[in-house]
Design goal:
The complex is a heterodimer of chains A (308) and B (252).
Chain A (H helix, E strand, L loop, with lengths): L1 E5 L9 H11 L4 E8 L3 H8 L6 E6 L8 H11 L5 E5 L2 H13 L4 E5 L1 E4 L2 E6 L4 E7 L4 E5 L14 E5 L8 E8 L12 E5 L11 H9 L2 E4 L1 H5 L20 E5 L5 H7 L4 E6 L12 E4 L2 H11 L1
Parallel strand pairs in A: 1-2, 1-4, 2-3, 3-10, 4-9, 5-9, 12-13, 12-14, 14-15, 15-16
Antiparallel strand pairs in A: 6-7, 7-8
Chain B lengths: L1 E5 L2 E3 L21 E3 L1 H15 L5 E8 L4 H10 L3 E6 L8 H15 L3 E5 L10 H9 L3 E11 L2 E8 L2 E8 L2 E5 L11 H7 L4 E5 L11 E7 L8 E3 L2 H11 L5
Parallel strand pairs in B: 1-4, 1-6, 4-5, 5-11, 6-10, 7-10
Antiparallel strand pairs in B: 2-3, 7-8, 8-9
Helix pairs in contact in B: 2-5, 3-4
């Protein structure tokens, strides 16, 4: 089995999802190649070369790949596809964007968002917002798969693979990058954080999210939000945890003022320990919480911060 | 400008699904079905384009058994002009690739300038069809859209990405998939529901479109997710911190 893994990065830093993708890839076969496509991303390729147990890194370093436009990336991946039995990418917004394009161009199905590898052709993935777990088997010649990184452990950084630079810029003329507005944050990324504290509609407004800052600082936590908090304009949408936002599985997830709708639970119910702080003791979040505290978050949060 | 909006009939988002005891799938008997929420947003966006004068015609298409005509009627009641039903035989379930191939046939017949789909259906959670349709038709794609504007004959799409927002410009024809924040869908009024009954739905057989409908992906089994252990309620912040430190050992 030969696996092509698409590296997740921002042209500067190799994202931790990639280490986890390699773990998933190695569950399929030993011959794992990592593709780094981007602009001025040599440092990313060097970081990828250290991923434990991979065969080699392919570096496609060109301005056309700088913004990961799917038209260009999909054509690049398809041009490299022959010789691989599997193509893996993270189920991030980047992977979700270009991978189905790859699959369609190769005339194969895609298996989305796998949480386990049973064998080289059989994978496990959640459906219905995580309320059912499907085991699916693909008889396609190439398995095009996106991986839920939070379901896999990371490989270590003790490898030393060779880097092969390729020179094939493929540019679609039909789409152009205009701009990006990225949320600046000193905190760990949501999908990589060991601890997450999230606020919901119960936070009442955006200013009150500052109540989570002190706790997040003390715990080294990322701050998330429910859809209700995002829709109400309290916080930006890239903080959203849930079926339509980010899927996380930290060691500790603290849900504050979040009722626990199906769509939110889909994004966090695989966390190791869940804490719920809510004044409504009937809130569904308490059914999945390991530790529940019924109380007014405006009293509980300052107490929690000072007791950490 | 003609806008094509594929919609899917899916389980109502509030329903708590049950896995069948024989692990063959999810029990959909007597379960409330509805238009997939992301598809509803796609219809709404198309209607808004029409109200702004950008679009001249909105065509809603759905693939499936006869029952999907309910969801096409919903689209018509919201303001779409006409419907297309690609009818499959009862019990046939298609994966995203076959759906995209059938939609490609519709695109070839209708030549829309824009195709707006939901970013994912809340049953299969695949998030594939729009991207696959774009690939098969050679169109550019603007996925996970939270804003869509037509400017100078191009689609300007603001996309929700992991780090924030990204804006791209796409030549038309293009494929756009909707994120939840694109808009707030309207409710269909009773007069519009009545009017929708007189709007035409063109029914075509999926089998006649020359698409191989066999899937290479087989569901081996469907199981309920592991249940979390029932937790405990703590009485105070002190007790909570103590438990997290000494029992769960997740903070130090």
């Amino acid at each position: 089995m030969t696996v092509l893994v698409y590296a997740e990065h921002d042209n500067e830093v190799l994202k931790p999802e990639t280490n986890k993708l390699v773990t998933a890839a190695k569950a399929v076969g030993d011959d794992v190649t990592v593709l780094v496509a981007g602009q001025q991303c040599e440092a990313v390729a060097q970081a990828a070369a250290k991923l434990s147990g991979i065969n080699k890194v392919i570096l496609a370093n060109d301005a056309v790949y700088g913004h990961q436009l799917p038209e260009n990336i999909a054509d690049l991946v398809v041009s490299l596809a022959s010789g691989y039995t599997h193509i893996f990418a993270a189920a991030t917004t980047t992977g979700k964007n270009f991978m189905p394009r790859v699959a369609a161009l190769l005339d194969v199905a895609q298996i989305s968002d796998i949480i386990a590898v049973e064998s080289a052709d059989t994978f496990v993935r959640p459906i219905y917002a995580g309320n059912a777990i499907a085991t699916v088997q693909s008889s396609d010649s190439v398995k095009v798969v996106t991986v839920r990184a939070s379901a896999f452990d990371a490989v270590s950084d003790d490898g030393n693979a060779e880097i092969e630079t390729i020179d094939n810029a493929i540019k679609s003329e039909k789409s152009r990058f205009l701009n990006a507005e990225l949320t600046e944050s000193e905190r760990p990324e949501l999908t990589a954080a060991d601890v997450i504290i999230s606020g919901g509609r119960g936070m009442q407004n955006g200013e009150n999210f500052a109540l989570l800052n002190g706790i997040a600082d003390k715990l080294g936590a990322a701050i998330g939000a429910s859809r209700a908090a995002v829709d109400a304009g309290f916080v930006p949408n890239d903080m959203q945890v849930g079926q339509t936002g980010k899927i996380v599985a930290p060691d500790l997830y603290i849900a504050v003022g979040i009722s626990g709708a199906i769509q939110h639970l889909a994004g966090m119910k695989d966390s190791k320990v869940i804490v719920a702080i809510n004044k409504d003791e009937e809130a569904p979040i308490f059914q999945v919480a390991d530790y529940g505290l019924v109380g007014d978050l405006f009293e509980v949060l300052p107490q929690l911060e000072s007791s950490l | 400008m003609k806008v094509l909006v594929p919609v899917k009939r899916a389980i109502d988002y509030n329903v708590k699904v049950r896995v069948k005891p024989d692990n063959s799938g999810v029990d959909l008997n007597n379960v409330k079905m509805a238009i997939n929420p992301f598809c509803e947003i796609a219809v709404e966006e198309a209607i808004r384009l029409k109200e702004k004068g950008d679009a001249t015609e909105v065509v809603v298409v759905s693939i499936g058994e006869k029952a999907v005509q309910e969801q096409i009627r919903t689209g018509l009641a919201l303001g779409a002009d006409r419907g297309i039903h690609i009818e499959t035989e009862a019990g046939v379930s298609l994966d995203s690739l076959q759906v995209a191939k059938l939609l490609k046939k519709v695109v070839e017949a209708e030549s829309p300038d824009l195709v707006i789909l939901g970013k994912q259906s809340i049953d299969s959670d695949n998030n594939q069809t729009g991207q696959m349709l774009a690939a098969l038709t050679g169109m550019p794609q603007g996925t996970f859209a939270s804003e869509l504007k037509i400017e100078n004959g191009k689609a300007v799409v603001t996309r929700e990405i992991d780090g924030g927002l990204q804006t791209v410009e796409l030549d038309l024809p293009a494929v756009v998939t909707t994120d939840l924040r694109l808009n707030e869908p309207r409710y269909a009024s009773l007069p519009n529901i009545m009017k929708a009954k007189r709007k035409p739905i063109d029914v075509q057989s999926a089998g006649d479109l020359g698409v191989d409908l066999s899937s290479k992906v087989k569901f081996i089994k469907v199981t309920p997710p592991p249940q979390r252990q029932g937790g405990i309620k703590v009485a105070s912040v002190e007790e909570l911190v103590d438990k997290l430190k000494n029992e769960a050992k997740v903070i130090s």
